[in-house]
Structure formats: structure tokens, C-alpha cells
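Proteins fold reproducibly. Take a sample protein:
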Amino acid sequence: MACTVTSAETDSDIQAHIAGLYIYPIKSCAGIALDEALLTETGFDLDRAWMVVDAGGMFVTQRELPRMALIQPTLRSDDLVLRAPGMLALHLRIDVVEAVAQVQVWGDKVQAYDMGDVAAQWFSDFLAPQRPPGAPPRPYRLVRFDPEQRRLASMTWTGGVEAPNQFADGFPLLVTSTASLEGLNRRLRSQGLADVGMDRFRPNIVLSGLDEHDEDRVDQMQIATQTGTVVLKPVKPCARCPIPNIDPLTATSDPAVGDTLQSYRVDPRVNGGITFGMNAITIEGVDQTLRVGQPVSGKFQFD
């Protein structure tokens, strides 16, 4: 069934298309590119549904453990399969959990489900080389978000709208564009440096047809699906930590990406942090399916 052009599209400041859809089943591990993604109340289905924690239940990410970038998930009908260099594949049943745990992600303490000792040993073995020299091995565990929990994005940024998310840093969705990445790569090439991929920025939705960083200026985005319309609202620029400096193929870090962004993406809206992409919430369209190629329209907001 083809998507038709709506009156909203013809009366729009932007006429873009979905160029890519991604989920990251385990927070801070590698992502999965999708042809279609089910939009749920907390973002895309199974996005950041799992998280690695230390012995105290505190979340860990590539910020402390760049090696997490090398953990590659695959989703099958009932299984989450994890692969990493030098490790046997770990198969986890999506619908099976073993125990309740209290965990912390940023300032939020939430109840989660522990995925068991086999998963814990697998992560501890693979991440062990990241511990400081002379430090004792740190045990890590894999947990799954308890869907009965309600972890909300900051309503200061959402304008009072309740926007639940699971283990994402703070918002259900992250939107960026192919033009924004090309703008960064053009600046890297001018310094004699290699291009980088979009996977460094871990978006959920990548748009084509926008000018560089136009996603920053859109008030709402309407996406024509096969069954209706999805309305997303970008609410907060995504301030960037050192993770984009990490090569997802090698887990090695180089400051070139962050230094280049620093030269043109300092953003007063987030106290002078460097930004790339927009955190977004769903206004309309929960339980609809987004697909690569769908048209996206929207109006710019002007302060």
C-alpha cells in the first residue's frame, strides 16, 4: 500500500523521508538497523529494553567501557542473540527473566528483571579487560526494564507532556539527518580525516531531504504511515558525551569527532554543550509502524 501525499505535506516547511530506523536493545551496545519499527509508548519496541549494571546496580555505558560497542545483538522471533569478539554467542529468551533487581540509570532508581547468572558471567568475562590495572574484577549483570515501571522524560523539556522511556538516557526517541552527518564529515575531510558513520550517534530515526541540522528547528513532524499519522515533537537538543569519539568497529577512541563538533555545534540551549540530533517524544501514533521511505512533513518553529 503506497503512502499518499497529504495536505499537511504540501503546507509544510520540510518534505523529508525516513532514511533509517534503528534500535539498541541493550543500552550502549551496538544497534540494529530495521526496515520497520513499531512505535510504543516508550519509543521503538525493544529499544533500550536491557541494560548492563555493576554489582551495585548502577548502569554502565561506553563512557566507562568502550568495549561495549563491540557487543552485537541480533533479534530473532523469541531470542536475543549476543556476539562479541572471542566469545561464544549468548542466546537469551526475550520473554524469560529470572529475578527482580533494583537498578539505577542516571538519577532514576527503578525495578528491573535480572537476566540470570549465565548472562552475568558472559558480560563480566567480556568486559573484564576494561577494569583499571590492579583492580579486582568487577561483576556485571544484564537486566531488563520492568514494563510496570514508569520512567518519565524531563517534563521541563516536554512542556508538561508525560513521555515514558525505558533505559534510554532521558527521552524515547532520537532524530537526526543524513545532511547533519554529511556536514560533520565534510569538516572532518577538510582536516584530512576519515568520514564517520551515523552509528556513532545512535539515533532511532534518520531523515533524508533536510538541510544540515534542520531537525533542530522543526516544531512537530508528521509521518504518513499505512494506517494513519504519527506525530513526533523534537523537544531537546542531544548534548554529546565522548561516545561519538569511539569507533564502533574497534572500540578505540579518538577526540577528532568531538573536537570538530566543538568548532561549530556549541549550543546555548544546553549550557554550551555540543549537540547533534534532537530528542523527541510521541504526540500521536502509538502502536503504529514506521518504515524506511515514509514521508515526513513539518513546520519550523521560530523563537
About this structure: The chain has one domain: 9-295.
